[in-house]
Amino acid sequence: MKIVDSAVLGDYDPVLHPMGYVSEYKLIIKQTERLEEKISDYHKQLRGMNNVVAEREFVNLATSIETYGFDPYVVKDGKQSQDLVVGATCRGILVFSKNQLLKNIPW
């Protein structure tokens, strides 16, 4: 899988973007086929959008996500002997257990 930035795909074109094209790109950690279909549908809806506007919208959306810039580390919880994921973001420290946010410690 390739890691893709917001400008790689360009404007939606059914010839250049056949069914399943999103699976070639690593967009998120747990990428499913269903999510890839949603991404493809959203790409189609943005057809005709100026590249500069598309990149600005992408950055605005990405930075609004709670885990934007998350740098995860797997650690053991000493009390319950379970794996936790701890990481820093631009807003603070996040602690997850089984994909559930347990703690948000803002800077």
Strand content: 25-35%
Instruction: Supply Rg.
Output: 17 Å
The secondary structure category is alpha+beta
Number of helices: 2
Oligomer: single chain
The total of beta strands comes to 6
Given as residue ranges, the uncertain stretches (5+ residues, pLDDT < 50) are: none
Helix share, percent: 25-40%
Q: Could you spell the SSE succession in H and E letters?
A: EEHHEEEE
Task: List the strand order in the largest sheet.
Answer: 3-4-5-6
Shape: elongated
Largest β-sheet summary: 4 strands, antiparallel
User: Distance between the terminal alpha carbons, to the nearest Å?
Assistant: 34 Å
- What count of structural domains? 2
Return the average pLDDT rounded to an integer: 83
Domain FERM: 1-107
Protein name: FERM domain-containing protein
InterPro entries: FERM/acyl-CoA-bd_prot_sf, FERM_2, FERM_central, FERM_domain, PH-like_dom_sf
GO biological process, one term: actomyosin structure organization
Descriptive report:
- The chain is of the alpha+beta class and 107 residues long.
- It folds into two domains: 2-64, no CATH class; 71-106, no CATH class.
- The chain contains two helices and six strands.
- The protein has helices spanning 33-45, 51-64, and strands spanning 2-3, 25-26, 71-76, 83-88, 92-97, 100-106.
- It starts with a strand and ends with a strand.
- The mean pLDDT is 83.
